[in-house]
Design goal:
Blueprint lengths: L4 H8 L27 E2 L5 E2 L2 E6 L12 E7 L1 H4 L16
Antiparallel strand pairs: 1-2, 3-4
Length: 96
């Protein structure tokens, strides 16, 4: 995962990455919050994280008021999102 070109320049000049606007921060820091565990931001700005195939439980399967879904499958983020090589983002540097 690479950093935005401007981010690299700012870091070389001694700027603190934590104080940079979010789109320019280096993308190596994983995202771990209630939305995504082990997620990360790619060069094109897409957040890649696991997705879940879930099914709503029947009343007989539910054991409480918040026991509503059962996870049938976890789809890895790399499989759930378009590959970086297929990104249409104009900020991505293409090889070739």
């Amino acid at each position: 995962m690479g950093a935005h070109p401007l981010s690299r320049r700012l870091q070389r000049l001694g700027h603190d990455a934590r104080l940079m606007p979010a789109p320019l921060r280096p993308r190596a820091t994983p995202v771990n919050d209630m939305f995504a565990t082990g997620g990360y931001l790619r060069e094109d700005g897409r957040m890649v994280h696991d997705m879940y195939l879930a099914q709503i439980k029947t009343p007989a399967e539910s054991t409480g008021p918040w026991d509503l879904v059962k996870i049938l499958k976890t789809v890895r983020g790399e499989e759930a999102f378009r590959p970086l090589a297929d990104s249409e983002c104009s900020l991505i540097r293409r090889q070739g």
